[in-house]
Amino acid sequence: MERGNQTGIRNFLLLGFTDYQDLQPLLFGLFLSMYLVTFTGNLAIILAVISDSHLHTPMYFFLSNLSFADICFTSTTVPKMLWNIQKQSQVITYAGCLSQVFFFILFGCLDNLLLTMMAYDRFVAICHPLHYMVIMSPRVCGLLALGSWCLSVTASLPETLTILRLSFCRSMKIPQSFCDLPEILKLACSDTLINHTVVYFMTITLGVFPLSGILFSYYQISSSILRMSSVSSRYKAFSTCGSHFSVVSLFYGTGLGVYLSSAVTSSSRTSLVASVMYTTVTPMLNPFIYSLRSRDMKGVLVRLISRAPSLIHRAFGGLS
């Protein structure tokens, strides 16, 4: 069998939706629409937070970072998938595949850590309201966001660089629409013990521990809310956590669905659908969840939309 490694010129093949040849135009239009909605919705949240001083709070600061991470997370996989569908191609270069793995892990970890920071923010706001402004100062929020970025890069680098030591002597076909690390490791004919050790260590460190932190935060939040005597106070406290809890459930639910489906069933179709939910649907729904449940966010977005035609006119008028 032909043997290839990191110095070779062999490319990977992303099988993705190649079994659905008759549906290629429909799939292209569907994923393009979803990508545009994801990009526009998350960009609108970022602009809303930047433009309105009432949204300059820790919760919306982390939300704007989450929206940026979601844009980057989706942009890591969807444009290449759209290109392959349009060109009727399955090819992705070795370097391109490693780049996808790096940025997919980076922004996936960043999403995870930012959701943890947002859970901590809600925990402080509800359980320690008198010390909230001191604990969640702008400096602390900035350091937490910077730390999330640094940890995400730290997690992504070793998982990606250890691929360079692998040789591939099997079919270079990946049954996904993007370069998924577990699928790449299945194609290796050299020993992957180090790779799996790094993956498990990073998963526990930056997956299990943050999730445990989120669950602990919500346990403390629920306990504090149940001790409140006023029904209106309970409702207000629950409503401030509702959006975040919905996004957390969607993020971890679809993420677990991807890897459980690949472990439990050998059906590539089931795994493919689960990965699409995780990589495209979840980032697309996040802006809707936050904007529909936040009165402040809805008000700012309405004002931005109403001002959009005049801003576009000024921009194009200046060019003419």
Task: Report on this structure.
With 320 residues, the protein is mostly helical. The protein has 10 helices and 3 strands. Strands 2-1-3 form a 3-stranded mixed β-sheet. The longest helix has 34 residues. The termini are far apart.
Short overview:
This protein is mainly alpha-helical and 320 residues long. The chain has 10 helices and 3 strands; from the N terminus they run βααβαααβααααα.
Summarize the helices and strands and which ones pair or pack.
Layout lengths: L11 E3 L9 H28 L6 H30 L3 E2 L1 H34 L4 H4 L2 H24 L11 E2 L6 H7 L5 H34 L4 H34 L3 H26 L1 H25 L1
Parallel strand pairs: 1-3
Antiparallel strand pairs: 1-2
Q: Flag low-confidence runs.
A: 1-9
Rg (C-alpha, Å)? 22 Å
Number of helices: 10
Helix/strand class:
mainly alpha
Oligomer: single chain
List SSEs in N-to-C order: EHHEHHHEHHHHH
Main sheet strand line-up: 2-1-3
Largest sheet entry: 3 strands, mixed
Beta-strand content? under 5%
Number of strands: 3
Helix % is over 70%
Shape: globular
Query: How many angstroms does the end-to-end distance come to?
Result: 61 Å
- Overall pLDDT level: 83
